[in-house]
Design brief:
By secondary structure, the protein is α/β, with parallel strands linked by helices. It has one domain: Alpha-Beta Barrel (TIM Barrel). The chain contains twelve helices and 14 strands. It has helices spanning 3-10, 41-46, 48-57, 80-90, 109-125, 143-162, 184-191, 203-209, 214-220, 250-253, 257-260, 277-291; strands spanning 34-36, 62-66, 68-69, 74-75, 93-98, 130-133, 166-170, 178-179, 182-183, 198-202, 225-230, 232-233, 240-241, 264-267. The protein has an eight-stranded parallel sheet with strand order 1-2-5-6-7-10-11-14. A two-stranded antiparallel sheet has the order 3-4. Helix 5 packs across helix 6 (143-162) and helix 6 packs parallel to helix 7. The longest helix is centred in the middle third of the chain and has 20 residues, at 143-162. The radius of gyration is 19 Å and the shape is globular. The chain starts with a helix and ends in a 5-residue tail after the last helix. 38% of the residues are buried. It holds the Pfam family AP_endonuc_2. Residues 52-254 form the Xylose isomerase-like TIM barrel domain. InterPro entries: IolE/XylAMocC-like (IPR050312), Xyl_isomerase-like_sf (IPR036237), Xyl_isomerase-like_TIM-brl (IPR013022).
């Protein structure tokens, strides 16, 4: 009996958002422990091989790239073929990448298509599964621009899907700011095609900035949140911090991965490191393996 049937049979669907994850993890799925490489971006740009080797020794198996140079077609200053060779030699993968779409928000459809084609080529070269739009700049965060962006997301999603890859949008906190009772995230959900535009759910930003919860988001759009970002929130400053060092109780807020449609998750810390980025990813990995990996 799967989880959905179980819940409906027991008549507890309305209360499911209050249960710890173990109460409804009926289907066990093994996901690779992932890391968003923005966390160690400086290290990657200085010595990608040493950084990835160290991350692998901590237990990370899958990675999400950041900083694709479309003009040179490189990742961290490396040609895709060289970067792919590193991944293969270390027996690790890069299943998703964050690409710089925000600068194309108001450019022509032809310019956007050309840039997307470059991203597709880069993703192909690394055998990625997803291309991800990670954010828009502060000056772009208006309700009208969320509508324009939603149109762009559909166009990119159509192009990326036709190429045999997945496409997703990654939330921060600004999407949950209300304007006359509506948020940018509402617009994205309403005006993008769920078959073309999947979602990368950043748990930290949902907890930090919205009135909803990760479980409620998944309940309202099951199957669409194909990727997760996991990072903790400092108890005082509410800034980023290492997993286990903050205030987010992931054992209670994680949605059911099967209901979410989860394919990949990535631990991330965008800054505010207690010591160094490398020490932070080690501390987060240790905490995750001890307290949270059993759920995934």
């Amino acid at each position: 009996m799967n989880r959905k049937v179980f819940i409906e049979t027991m008549g507890i669907l309305g209360a499911s958002t209050l249960l710890p994850l173990t109460a409804y993890s009926m289907t066990k799925t093994r996901y690779k422990m992932g890391l968003q490489l923005y966390t160690v971006n400086d290290n990657m740009n200085k010595d990608a091989v040493a950084t990835l080797k160290a991350a692998k020794s901590m237990g990370y198996e899958d990675f999400e790239t950041f900083g694709f140079n479309s003009e040179k077609g490189t990742f961290y200053g490396l040609k895709p073929s060289n970067f792919k060779q590193i991944l293969e030699e270390l027996q690790i993968t890069a299943s998703s990448g964050h690409f710089g779409f925000s600068s194309y928000l108001h450019k022509s459809q032809d310019d956007l298509r050309k840039f997307t084609e470059q991203c597709i080529k880069g993703a192909y070269d690394l055998d990625m599964k997803y291309i991800t739009w990670p954010w828009i700049a502060p000056e772009q965060r208006t309700m009208d621009n969320f509508k324009i962006m939603s149109q762009k997301l559909n166009l990119i999603g159509e192009q990326v899907t036709a190429a045999g890859l997945g496409f997703a949008y990654h939330n921060h906190g600004f999407e949950f700011t209300e304007h006359n009772g509506e948020t940018g995230f509402d617009i994205i959900l309403k005006e993008t095609d769920p078959e073309l535009v999947k979602l990368q759910l950043d748990m930290y930003w949902v907890v930090h900035s919205s009135k909803t919860t990760p479980r409620e988001l998944v309940k309202n759009r099951p199957g669409r949140y194909v990727m997760w970002h996991l990072k903790d929130m400092h108890k005082t400053s509410r800034d980023y911090t290492e997993l286990g060092n903050g205030s987010i109780d992931y054992a209670r807020i994680l949605p059911d991965p099967v209901d979410s449609g989860l394919e990949f998750y990535y631990i991330e810390q965008g800054g505010n490191f207690t010591h160094t980025p490398m020490k932070s990813i080690a501390d987060s990995a240790e905490y995750f393996k001890e307290h949270l990996q059993e759920y995934l």
